[in-house]
Amino acid sequence: MPSKWVELLTAARKTALLQEGRRKIHFTMSDGAELLEEYDVRSNELLVRKWRRKSALGGQKGWEYEVGEADLTAKFAALSHGSEHVVESHENPICFRCDTKKLFQWRIRNLPFPTSTYELSIRDQSIVVRTSNKKYFKILQIPDMERYGLSLNESELSFAHANNTLIVQYKKPVEIITDQDMLMVEFKKMKVTKEGDAECNQS
C-alpha cells in the first residue's frame, strides 16, 4: 500500500522541466500549496525541495527550503525590495540540507572549532547540535521522518568535520529509500519541457 507521501505527490497536479542538468518538478496540492523538487539528471539525487504555502489570509508566502540552499543573490534582491529583514552574514554559520541517496545530510559552514567540540544528540524527535564551548547551538528536524511517523534513533546519527564545515548525517530508513526509487520511476515517465520550450506539460 502506498505511503501517504507517495499518495500526496501522485495526486498532485505536476509539471516537469529539464534545465541545466536538473529535472525540476512543480507540484500543486489540492489545498493550493506548491512544492518544487529538483533532481540531478545523472545521479537522480534530490538537490532542492522547497514549499510555498498559503497564508492564513489566503495570500502567498515565500518559498521555504526543506532541502538545498537558498540563493543568496535572491535574498539580497528581496532585501533591497524590503521583503526580507535579515540576510545571513558570510561569516556566520550557514546550515543547509543536502541529502544523498541513503543519508539525510546537513552541512554547517563557518564552524572552525575542533572535532572534539561538537556534541550531537536526539531530543523530542529532533537532532540537537551543540558545542562544548557554547558557541553554537542548532536544532535540525527531518520532516520526512515526521511524514512517515517514524522515530529517530541515535545509533543512525553521525558527523564529521573538515574545512570549517560540520557534516551531520542520519541514515534513511528503508521505506523512505524505497519510495524515493518508486517516485523517480514515475517522474521519469512524465512528459518534460526542455529549457527554452514555450510551456510545461502537466500530469
Automatic annotation (TrEMBL):
<dbReference type="Pfam" id="PF14913">
    <property type="entry name" value="DPCD"/>
</dbReference>
<comment type="similarity">
    <text>Belongs to the DPCD family.</text>
</comment>
<dbReference type="InterPro" id="IPR026224">
    <property type="entry name" value="DPCD"/>
</dbReference>
<protein>
    <recommendedName>
        <fullName>Protein DPCD</fullName>
    </recommendedName>
</protein>
